[in-house]
């Protein structure tokens, strides 16, 4: 079977189904992309991913230079080393893109995410939710007689762990910001 043939029974035809055929490991990368803050730029960046079947695990965008009208897009994606290099090269060819940084390979980076969690419950479940929130250094940002909204900031793994522990205690809704990241040290 040719490496480009998709396995029988596969329902998805994205670039990720080809990875095992080449034997390359899939890696998670955090990309920081500095772009012009103008209409359509985000759509072009997202179109690059969707048009080629690449997945975006997390996406955050905000203006970081008001005078220069520049925004920073932080994208967390996964792929083989070849796919990641291809993504970076294609991002760099978009006219409104000024810089593309792969924070994963440029050295250590600090990644943080904000999560809001609505947890309902009474009695022991309510007490346990507050106890766990204290361990995770979560803030109570809203409280009623039957629910809490907790705010947690940390790594994506910390946010996942908090959600996993809150599910049996009455987790009913989650909102996450996506990853914000900066490389450590001087750049």
TrEMBL record:
Name of one Pfam family that matches: ACT_AHAS_ss
Keywords, in A-Z order: Amino-acid biosynthesis, Branched-chain amino acid biosynthesis, Transferase
Metabolic or biological pathway, per its Swiss-Prot or TrEMBL entry: Amino-acid biosynthesis; L-isoleucine biosynthesis; L-isoleucine from 2-oxobutanoate: step 1/4; Amino-acid biosynthesis; L-valine biosynthesis; L-valine from pyruvate: step 1/4
Gene Ontology BP annotations: isoleucine biosynthetic process; L-valine biosynthetic process
Residue span(s) of domain ACT: 30-105
Main function: Catalyzes the conversion of 2 pyruvate molecules into acetolactate in the first common step of the biosynthetic pathway of the branched-amino acids such as leucine, isoleucine, and valine.
Protein name: Acetolactate synthase small subunit
